[in-house]
């Protein structure tokens, strides 16, 4: 093209327009790519429940909350149970009648006891082999875990009565809820699974296979920030640590060849986990973050259930009173030398032991709303025990007077004392945060 032609003079403008078109095309491609990523993220959240709507006052997603979101007590110190003190009843439960719901495993029934009169006021059918009565995360339903019936039966805590048909769920030995309320965790002990489900419909979202490496998976508690959980593996003698956001196994911790871990509870500071071992007659101390065993506290025969006092100073330990050779009916008398040990969280030592006059087999339960009474099922005695804890908050470990021994059905197990203080429930018989 001749130098100085019209076409040549227009070339700079043409190049500019071309560059503009290229930039626009690149920008459009970037927008499309971001839109695709966003859609994938939304669908992934829907599949895992991470994006599920949560009611006001709910907590941050596990591992995403700032340090300031952690529960704190006096002096700004982290306190796992800071929101579950006496008098801290949610408006959701404030008018619920004070009742105790007792699942009778061999009868397939639930016995209801009035907390004020210590009398049985109702008994109704559940499913086959009900193991635990579990408060939902939103505090609006109590779920009866019909283990062999493969279902969950709803109870309305406002009336104390059944609230509709049972929901089909495979092998629900126990039931928990992730701290953000996004998922239910059905502990399918016989199937070696922890099933993450919709917390309302219980539709299956993800089944975590813990295998025989965690044979007998049955009890769970959660870290203070909700980023991980630790579950007990009764028949494998170990613990399993679970990444909650990713719903996968982090690792295992062996507790000894003859160990039979049962209930598990985190301390108020969120550092040390207490693990009941019914074969070792005591409680293992585990550093949860490092996932290492750091100590052991001897309590009593067949250590089983663990319940923090309402003021967060003590841990009540139910010693069921026998060993594995006394677990099959007819139960021998030698298996009823049960007691309650009181461990100080501050010193990690036993500061009191409460015997049961005439013997007993305390198993699972909880303290009442103000912490003045400890309720425990008598697994092999077909009764419910009620202990005086020494006043509101459970502030006197030397108390421990047995107030009542209430006859119920055959093999009562994980009873629920309701209502409970707290913002939400993590499940089991009422782990409140």
From TrEMBL:
Superkingdom, taxonomy of origin = Bacteria
Coiled-coil ranges (or none): none
UniProt cross-references to InterPro entries, sorted A to Z: Host-pathogen_enzymatic-act, N2O_reductase_N, WD40/YVTN_repeat-like_dom_sf, YNCE-like_beta-prop
Membrane-crossing ranges are: 21-40
Gene3D superfamilies per the record? YVTN repeat-like/Quinoprotein amine dehydrogenase
Q: Where is this region: Disordered?
A: 48-72
The signal peptide, as residue positions, is none
Which SUPFAM superfamilies does UniProt cross-reference here?
Nitrous oxide reductase, N-terminal domain
> Where does the YNCE-like beta-propeller domain lie?
100-415
Q: Name one Pfam family in it.
A: YNCE
Entry keyword set: Membrane, Signal, Transmembrane, Transmembrane helix
Instruction: Provide the protein name.
Output: YNCE-like beta-propeller domain-containing protein
Source organism (scientific name): Frankia casuarinae (strain DSM 45818 / CECT 9043 / HFP020203 / CcI3)
């Amino acid at each position: 093209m001749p130098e100085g032609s019209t076409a040549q003079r227009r070339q700079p403008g043409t190049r500019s327009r071309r560059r503009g078109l290229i930039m626009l095309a690149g920008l459009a491609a970037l927008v499309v790519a971001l839109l695709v990523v966003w859609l994938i993220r939304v669908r992934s959240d829907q599949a895992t429940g991470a994006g599920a709507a949560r009611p006001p006052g709910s907590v941050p997603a596990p591992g995403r909350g700032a340090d300031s979101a952690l529960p704190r007590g006096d002096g700004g110190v982290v306190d796992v149970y800071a929101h579950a003190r006496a008098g801290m009843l949610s408006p959701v439960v404030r008018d619920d009648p004070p009742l105790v719901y007792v699942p009778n495993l061999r009868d397939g029934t639930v016995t209801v006891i009035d907390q004020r009169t210590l009398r049985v006021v109702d008994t109704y059918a559940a499913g086959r082999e009900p193991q635990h009565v579990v408060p939902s995360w939103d505090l609006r339903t109590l779920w009866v875990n019909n283990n062999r019936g493969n279902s969950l039966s709803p109870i309305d805590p406002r009336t104390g009565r059944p609230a509709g048909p049972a929901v089909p769920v495979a092998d629900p030995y126990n039931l928990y809820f992730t701290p953000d309320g996004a998922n239910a965790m059905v502990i399918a002990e016989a199937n070696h699974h922890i099933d993450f489900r919709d917390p309302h419909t219980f539709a299956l979202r993800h089944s975590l296979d813990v295998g025989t490496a965690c044979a007998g998976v049955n009890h769970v508690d959660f870290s203070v920030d909700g980023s991980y959980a630790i579950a007990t593996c009764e028949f494998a003698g170990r613990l399993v640590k679970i990444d909650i956001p990713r719903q996968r196994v982090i690792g295992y911790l062996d507790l000894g060849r003859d160990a039979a871990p049962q209930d598990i509870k985190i301390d108020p500071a969120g550092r040390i986990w207490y693990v009941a071992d019914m074969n070792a007659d005591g409680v293992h101390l585990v550093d949860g973050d490092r996932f290492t065993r750091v100590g052991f506290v001897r309590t009593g025969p067949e250590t089983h259930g663990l319940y923090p006092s309402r003021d967060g100073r003590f841990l009540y330990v139910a010693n069921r009173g026998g060993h594995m050779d006394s677990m099959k009916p007819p139960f021998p008398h030698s298996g009823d030398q049960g007691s309650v040990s009181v461990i100080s969280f501050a010193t990690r030592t036993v500061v009191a032991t409460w015997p049961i006059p005439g013997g007993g087999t305390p198993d699972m339960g909880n303290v009442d709303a103000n912490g003045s009474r400890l309720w425990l099922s008598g697994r092999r005695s077909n009764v419910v025990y009620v202990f005086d804890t020494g006043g509101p908050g459970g502030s006197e470990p030397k108390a421990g007077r047995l107030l009542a021994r209430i006859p119920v059905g055959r093999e009562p197990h994980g009873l629920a004392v309701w209502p409970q203080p707290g913002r939400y429930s993590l499940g089991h018989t009422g782990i409140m945060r």
